[in-house]
């Protein structure tokens, strides 16, 4: 279901700036076209996912652009972690989570940042971030090559870059140190 409010804000330029293109080009592409229902091939797909995520995180650290931590349950079907965004030298950190859809990798996971639920129009109920207009068609064109590292680089990263400064400027989120005063 496409929400009209998701159309504003995340434009192509935010999704495809040079730094993002470079970072994405260095993420290994995945080969195994399998989701959690296919137990044997899913293990192979998970191995590829972890290798791509490790490479992406290593590259981010090298580029001084470390911005998330991610782990999964034993089956690799439920993922959780932290993501953060630096704004005016202050680190804004959020819990994130998502489930692997049964139709993965044909269907991209929906990343949720529960504490931001209801604070922006570019979010669905439960704090799921809106990636409809630009990300989902890009994902669909790249099945099964795109994986969770691509979801972070082309989905969550650009969403944070657009939404967090906007939420801060509107006073809808404040830095944790400022909350106590």
Automatic annotation (TrEMBL):
Keyword set, alphabetical order: Ubl conjugation pathway
Molecular functions (GO terms): UFM1 conjugating enzyme activity
Record carries keyword DNA damage: no
An example Gene Ontology CC term for this record: cytoplasm
Pfam families: UFC1 (PF08694)
Active site: 130 (glycyl thioester intermediate)
GO biological process, one term: protein K69-linked ufmylation
Oligomer and partners: Interacts with UBA5 (via C-terminus). Interacts with UFL1. Interacts with UFM1.
Family: Belongs to the ubiquitin-conjugating enzyme family. UFC1 subfamily.
Function per UniProt: E2-like enzyme which specifically catalyzes the second step in ufmylation. Accepts the ubiquitin-like modifier UFM1 from the E1 enzyme UBA5 and forms an intermediate with UFM1 via a thioester linkage. Ufmylation is involved in various processes, such as ribosome recycling, response to DNA damage, interferon response or reticulophagy (also called ER-phagy).
Descriptive protein name: Ubiquitin-fold modifier-conjugating enzyme 1
Organism annotation: Oncorhynchus mykiss (Rainbow trout)
